[in-house]
Structures are given as C-alpha cells and as structure tokens.
Protein 1
Amino acid sequence: MTFDRRRVLAGAGVAAVLAGFGLPLSTHDARAQSADVAKVMAPAASPLPQKVIGSADAPVTVVEYASLTCSHCADFHTKDLPELKAKYIDTGKVRFIFREFPFDPVATAAFMLARCAPEDKYFPMVSTLFETQKSWAYSKDPAAGLLAVVRQTGMSQAEFEKCLSDQGLAQKVQESARYANAELGVNATPTFFVNGKKLSGALDIATWDKELAPLLAGK
C-alpha cells in the first residue's frame, strides 16, 4: 500500500470512519536502502509507548511500519510473522518493534482501538484485526465492522466510542506515520528497518533468513 499524506493528515479521522473509505492497494517488491539508526530509534519516531516483542539484548532489531488496512501487512502478520517469531524472536536473536503507519482514517481508528486495549492485549488485538481485515477494512460500514471485531475481544460499545473520541490519541497515532514518511522515507507498507537497513515489501521467511544470516553469524 502506498502512502497518501492527504489521507493521513485529514483531521483526526474518527468522523470519517463512519462515512467509510475506499482503500487503494499496490504491490511492492522488496528493496533495500540504508537509514540513520539514530533517526529510526529516536523518541520522536514513536509518539506513543513502543510495542515490542523479543529480548532487549537481541543482536538484531527489526522495526516494522504497517497499516492495519494494508493487505500485504495482513499477509505478513498472518503467514510469515509466526515463523519469524518462532525462529528468531522467541529464541532471543531478534527484537521486533511494531509501529503504526495508518494510511487512512479507518486504519487510524483500528490502531486507536488496539491502543485502547489492555497493555497485554495490544498484539493479540492487532493480530485479530489483521485476521479479520476483510470483514471491516473494505466494507461499506467499517465502523460497524470494527465494532463487531472488538466486541469479540471483550471491548464494549461504550469503550469503543470513548476510544474513538480521543483526539489526542488519534493525532499521536498519525504522528508516527508523519515522522516515518518525512524522516525515514517510508512511503509503503510494510516497511522494515533491520539494524537500520530499510526493506520495503512483504518478506517471506526465506528472505528473512537471507537478511538475518550475516547479522547473526557467530551469535
């Protein structure tokens, strides 16, 4: 999915969710660039508390920028991340940081709902939203679709409405995308930074093996 600054900057986006949005999709091949690691890890890069899985002592840090309305991101999270997690994250080799990069108000709202979940439910909520993406992201009434999904996780309608009325949260979620686009050159999702090396596109486990092997040699 490609970045459209006008959509991200179009207000807090909550009211727009109720109207529904068409979501443009495009496919991106993996391509590598270098990035300033200090900029990737700067406090401004993450306006909200970092969402991290894996050991803080891992020799490799992977940062992912994703949009919850991105089909390629959903493919990665449902098909490839479980194997990456079992092989590299759970074994202490990779620290994985997930950052919001909403392309549109619907994605902003979905990320807000994940942020409003209890701390230990953030990643399960993100996983559920990716798994059910087709039922809400591309529907005529995405707000109703999102409500149906989050109610299955235990969130009430009152909590849902309160969460989506938090303009400060909406702005912080969107600020993550603004920074990544302006400072890191992120314009597609998913985009990964592997110890500072930028990779764009959906990466299968064979590609991850190739990228991580030289970084983990002898470790």
Note: The longest helix spans residues 71-89.
Protein 2
Amino acid sequence: MTVFDDRGRPEPPADGDEAATLLGFLNFQRATLGWKTANLDAEGLNRTVAASTMTLGGLLKHMAYVETSWFSRSLFGRPMGEPWDSVDWKADRDWEWHSAPDDTPEALQAIWRESIEGADALIAEAMADGGLGRSAHRVWPDGRSPSLRWILCHMIEEYARHNGHADLIRESIDGETGE
C-alpha cells in the first residue's frame, strides 16, 4: 500500500526491496518537483532568484530532457523523440533551459509528465530484462557501462539537487517552502 504525505507525494517504502526503495525515492523526488511547480502561471515559471537565470519552467523542461535521455537514449540506445531529436544541440547545448520561456505552463507540465510516463515504461522493460543490474547501452570512454541501478541513483541525485533550486525559486514567488 502506498502512503502519501501531506503534499500528496508517495512515501518511499520503509521495508521495500532494493528496486521498490530506489523507485520509491525517485518517485518521491519527482513528486517534489511537481509540488514546487504546481499551479504557477508563466510569470511564476519564469521567475529567477538572485543572479541565477534558472527558472522553474526551465527546470521542468530540463528534467523532461534528463528523464528521456537517460532512460531512452542511454539505457536502450533509442531515439529520444521530439522535441529533442530536432534540436541543434551544438548551437545551444542548454536549449531546454533557453527555450522553456516560449512554452506555456501547461506544455511544460505535459512534457515533463510524459517523459516520466515514458521513463517508467522503459524502467519496467529493463527490470524485466536483467533487473537493476542490467547494463545500459551507453558505454563510457573507459569501457564501463552504467547499470539500471546506477541510473536510478543518478536520477534520484539529479532530482534532489534540482529540487533544492526549485525550493528557493518557489519561495521567492509566493513563500511556499518545505522539503
């Protein structure tokens, strides 16, 4: 049975196996970003803090890119799909951050949620084909290849780091704070 906190986030299982625990923490971090970006208009999603150019809208689009990149391209060697495949990444390696202000809040939320749905399907596929130890298609220059376990831990770290940014930005918008 899934337990939800007062913000509607699924709590990681206290007694789950390795896969359930990793996925539980990843889903908790995903839900934290959902909470930090919920119910904001374009102005709110484009707000910056101090000298940073980071926005919550850019963060949503970046995490959509990261989800799709790791679980589609890196894990399985598959195309990422649109909008990612047609971007000239050499011209703008931070395109997802720079293009986010051109998107509506609804479009930003949709691309992020759709990337999670796709990532979850790919995680399930990988779990059925080797489990957490399944090697990714991606090979690093030294010949090593990360496992699904490594990718899940990396995604937890990626969300946790950016959720700290999201907390600061959201607080500057309307005072909303929390873990």
Note: Residues 51-174 form one domain.
